[in-house]
What we know:
The protein is of the alpha/beta class. Helices cover about 35% and strands about 20% of the residues. One zinc ion binds near residues 232, 263, 292 and 293.
Amino acid sequence: xxxxxxxxxxxxxxxxxxxxxxxxxxxxxxxxxxxxxxxxxxxxxxxxxxxxxxxxxxxxxxxxxxxxxxxxxxxxxxxxxxxxxxxxxxxxxxxxxxxxxxxxxxxxxxxxxxxxxxxxxxxxxxxxxxxxxxxxxxxxxxxxxxxxxxxxxxxxxxxxxxxxxxxxxxxxxxxxxxxxxxxxxxxxxxxxxxxxxxxxxxxxxxxxxxxxxxxxxxxxxxxxxxxxxxxxxxxxxxxxxxxxxxxxxxxxxxxxxxxxxxxxxxxxxxxxxxxxxxxxxxxxxxxxxxxxxxxxxxxxxxxxxxxxxxxxxxxxxxxxxxxxxxxxxxxxxxxxxxxxxxxxxxxxxxxxxxxxxxxxxxxxxxxxxxxxxxxxxxxxxxxxxxxxxxxxxxxxxxxxxxxxxxxxxxxxxxxxxxxxxxxxxxxxxxxxxxxxxxxxxxxxxxxxxxxxxxxxxxxxxxxxxxxxxxxxxxxxxxxxxxxxxxxxxxxxxxxxxxxxxxxxxxxxxxxxxxxxxxxxxxxxxxxxxxxxxxxxxxxxxxxxxxxxxxxxxxxxxxxxxxxxxxxxxx
Length: 570
Ligand SMILES: [Zn+2]
Ligand SMILES: [Zn+2]
């Protein structure tokens, strides 16, 4: 009895201490129930008991061995040693035996592009099968809202994934709520989409009226539950905003204590300047800053990794609330149109394609594309995703060098051919150094995130060839980076996937295993967890994820979906 009490007190204490360290003053305030000590406890006490596992509460501290977690009505109600409760089945409806496994808070993917894919694959297949219970979307400046009055009016009477076309976040969240979803979801407002809706898609300055309108819309979206603002400053049209314009928007986010996620203006030759710019935006606006997918791209910039971290540490020391995320891969994923310089990417797809066809502008684009390809290390480092058009089918899943061989074309004419036929085609670029990935993920302000989306091996999404990160981010993090490379210990790794992202998002009852917290729980085997997804065959689930529980709903059991949806908008 004494042991149990000490163990529990110790647990609660360490949990709240870590919560404080992570800037989560609100965490750890839940009431503490009494221990399970007698056999008179009835089935009313618990819906589910997780027994025999090694319980990592997400706080980064040493785990509780042979502990149990009691769940009732979607919440964790008790955690601790089993005591003299011998026959667990008498005390709950379901017992999950977690022997040999780690019991962790569900993983939180702080950087995803899940968004409308969740309406197509509402189970959240590629995410729930890697232990993710909460996905954060609307990143890199792109969100499926807001839309201009004119655009919305033109869409009246049309459906989007079976729902009446929505205009704002409320409408999008309503569509998700109506659908029943398997994972929790929350989204940023994309600054690129916001600017597109109010200012348009060209490189023009926002008028004072447009500025006022953007502020009004963003303020309203924040009121509807937007997490904050995301920027994609390598993309059109978000990059056409001045920093003064972005700062004014960020002040709105700061007012709501939201988060600013930035895909920086540059991630290669000028990455250090881009970090300084991101920090300056946070300094001027007072917003909390999350640098998205921190990377030093192209071999010429790999040496910059340590200095990039130094810039971030200095900002932290200055008092800026800053952290960053990073996918556990050396290859990035983006659109093939990244080979078109930004100022040539203005306007509609047809306008950009006209510039590619016009010999005068094509010359500029071709020079840019060739130099970009060279900096990436050559055409063999660019892998083409799944093509839509039947005539392009032979290029799907091949690198540009292979495509050139097939067609006899040089790299730019090959890329041009694709951009004129499938402008929005996705690509994967192998351009980063693993030592930097390790260093970023190990850093105390760093956390893994997919930068991927929900996909499914079945249905329409199975036809695409996404970057394997959409299926494998967390299993790869625990398999390669923790078990093999040992960049940090297991409890720290779990903290990076749970309490740390929860504190950035401001989720007050998720990310930790504590009484009163939502029962989002992932049970995995630290010895077998690994990524199965590959660049050629990404639609594969990872071994080692044994059980996933979302808001108390047992969703995944030994790699099988049990048919129940526990997700919600958080
Ligand atoms: Zn991005
Ligand atoms: Zn992204």
